[in-house]
């Protein structure tokens, strides 16, 4: 199949039937002050069916509570530990554990271990990858440190979240 046959409609559906190979360390990567996400397959490549990435989170890192209106997220933990809050439950995930987070349910996670947590993220349907492209910083050098948290980043994150059907919630009170 020629590269010009990939597009929208029937052409995009045919794109889902193509083999995809992403050599280690070659996927497009984006970084926030909290985590790094490396794309493995995008909606364009899967005909819109799903998006898959590897996510790395430093010890103590995590995301704030939020809700996805459009998609489900699934995590397969490969390394480290994550404490996942979902729908009022606390799940303590270790390597080999799988967590599926339904759309419309508040959730967040935190790396509660002392090593980097790595997990495969599958999002269905695809589209959330565009949130990361717009809100996060492209990774130019994989060895570079995470960018600092800033008002500019938070503003971009919140604006982009609305565009992709995400709602960030206030942190739970202690």
Describe what you observe in this structure:
This protein has a single domain, classed as Sandwich (Jelly Rolls), CATH 2.60.120. The chain has 4 helices and 12 strands. The strands form 3 sheets. The chain has a 7-stranded antiparallel β-sheet with strand order 8-5-10-3-2-1-11. A hairpin with a 3-residue loop joins strand 1 and strand 2. The longest helix has 13 residues. It is globular, with a radius of gyration of 16 Å. The termini are far apart. The N terminus is likely disordered.
Count of separate structural domains: 1
| CATH architecture call | Sandwich
- Please tally the helical runs, counting DSSP H or I stretches of 4 or more residues: 4
Q: What's the CATH first level?
A: Mainly Beta
Overall pLDDT confidence: 87
Number of strands: 12
Order of strands side by side in the largest beta sheet? 8-5-10-3-2-1-11
First CA to last CA: what distance? Answer: 56 Å
Shape: globular
Class based on secondary structure composition and strand pairing:
alpha+beta
The major beta sheet can be summarized as: 7 strands, antiparallel
